[in-house]
Amino acid sequence: MRVKVIGGGLAGSECAYQLLKRGYDVDLYEMRGVKNTPCHSTDKLAELVCSNSLKAQSMDNASGLLKYELARLDSLILKCAYASDVPAGGALAVDRDKFSALIESRLREFGGFRLIREEVKEIDSSQPVVIATGPLTSDAMSECIAKLLGGDYLHFFDAVAPIVEADSIDYDKAFFAARYGKGDADYLNCAMNKEQYIEFRNQLVSAERAQLKDFEINVFERCMPIEIMAGRGEDTMRYGPLRPVGIRNPHSDERPYAVVQLRKENKEGSAYNIVGFQTNLKFGEQKRVFRLIPGLENAEFARYGVMHRNTFINAPRVLDASFATKKYPLVFFAGQMTGVEGYMESTLSGLIAGINLARRLEGKEDLIMPSTTVTGALQRHVSTIVDDYQPMNANFGVLPVLDRPPRDKKARKFKYSSRAVGDTERYLKDKEN
Fold first, then answer.
1. CA-to-CA distance for 54 and 48, rounded, in angstroms?
2. DSSP strand pairing (129-131 vs 331-333)
3. 298-350: pLDDT as tens digits
4. What is the distance between the alpha carbons of residues 310 and 159, in angstroms, rounded to a whole number?
């Protein structure tokens, strides 16, 4: 059987490999070479548009754990990354050209592989297909996706507030409270006095910002970054997301001058997002400035705030944990389009989509990894309905909390990884039997 995969990025290339190795013929469609995007500079498969780093390798990091899981599931992208690596300390970084060349070479070893340079402008939902066109999907393809899923389920930019790991927050300073003591105390509050607020604002407005590309600038007219809000006046934030009205600090029994509020990112409360803090600050600056907030001095960021052009779908409304559409069982999505963010995360989604499409064609049950693994957690992220769905990368904050977490931060992270490794091995052994 011949299967269509649309998009020759990391997710599409990985997906094609998973299908080819299982005996399926694959037509991989890639429009670059015929029509370029605003960010890509070549027509090579799996081109790394930004950094050449695939992040950390150590198992005390969620990125390292994700690499273990990818290796266990036989990821082509990961194998080619190791075969084209360059020195990068504790990170895995690659020679971009060698990396892309290796991936295409490995795919061409399969007799059933065809690379078709063409912009796809139609989706046949009656045939098996994987859509992995990425965050810079063409206008024509966006229209196809909107028609397939419904326009309400397609987004065109990210404006995401930073997310911090719950166990890195200082609860001797932060506190749960509801305004005026009414209702449930669903928000975690970080109170500031006037001196702390003024210093925070000064650092915020002077911090270095990421440079937007020309095609992104108009995207953000409807969404104000916190640093822009701060620059509009000394009290602007205090009348907006840092409004202190109705809050009293139980640690001091005083009314705060300003309050930063955090909201649970998941039911377990293992991660919190900083409410109203969509930002265009560089990542290092976010870490420096947001750690000025009382209670967040040692915050570990599960992800930083981002604002950039990014076409993605409201996946939980339309996808299940296999990365297939709920309406069309043989139509899958993969890559950043689904709401996973990062090179390895995109690779993972392509791997899972390819495996599960093959399994469905063979009448087998889907591969749904345990929720204690990064893979399983991201599968659940794209399929668990929330009010405000936003892209997510690999981090320990998406995993279920440990029963007895060690107090030492490094030991705690290794325990997350150890649990995931054990559950991965048990699950895959059960699948093989």
1. 10
2. parallel
3. 999 988 988 766 678 999 999 999 999 999 999 999 999 999 989 999 999 99
4. 10
DSSP state, residue 98: H
For the chain, give the mean pLDDT. 91
Specify the pLDDT at position 104.
Answer: 97
Integer Cα distance of 401 and 399 in angstroms:
6
C-alpha count within 13 angstroms, C-beta hemisphere, residue 371: 13
Q: How far apart are CA 228 and CA 150, in angstroms?
A: 33
* Strand 113-116 to 25-29 pairing: parallel
Rounded distance, CA 128 to CA 14, Å? 16
| Token code pair at residue 112 | 């059933």
Backbone angles phi, psi at 303, to 5 degrees: -160, 150
Token look-up 């109170």 returns 191
Residues with Cβ within 8 Å of residue 322, at least 6 apart in sequence: 332, 352, 353, 356, 360, 366, 367, 368, 379
Could you identify the residue written with the tokens 């930063």?
A: 260
DSSP state at residue 187: E
Look-up of token digits 């796809």: 120
- CA 264, CA 153: separation in Å to the nearest integer? 23
Burial tier of 209 (Cβ tally within 10 Å: 0-12, 13-18, 19+): middle
Provide the 8-state DSSP code for 249: B
Measured between alpha carbons, how far is 158 from 390 in angstroms, rounded to an integer?
7
Query: How many CB atoms sit inside 10 A of residue 108's CB?
Result: 11
Check residue 340 and report its DSSP letter. B
Is pLDDT larger for residue 138 or for residue 287? 287
Give the number of residues written for the chain. Answer: 433
Question: What are the φ/ψ torsions at residue 385 (nearest 5 degrees)?
Answer: -70, 130
Residue-wise pLDDT tens digits, 350-375: 999 999 999 999 999 999 999 999 99
Residue among 353, 414, 38 at smallest CA distance from 219: 38
- Cβ(154)–Cβ(271) under 8 Å? no
User: Domains in the chain, please, with CATH?
Assistant: 2-158+307-432 (3.50.50.60), 163-303 (2.40.30)
Phi and psi at residue 108, in whole multiples of 5°? -75, -10
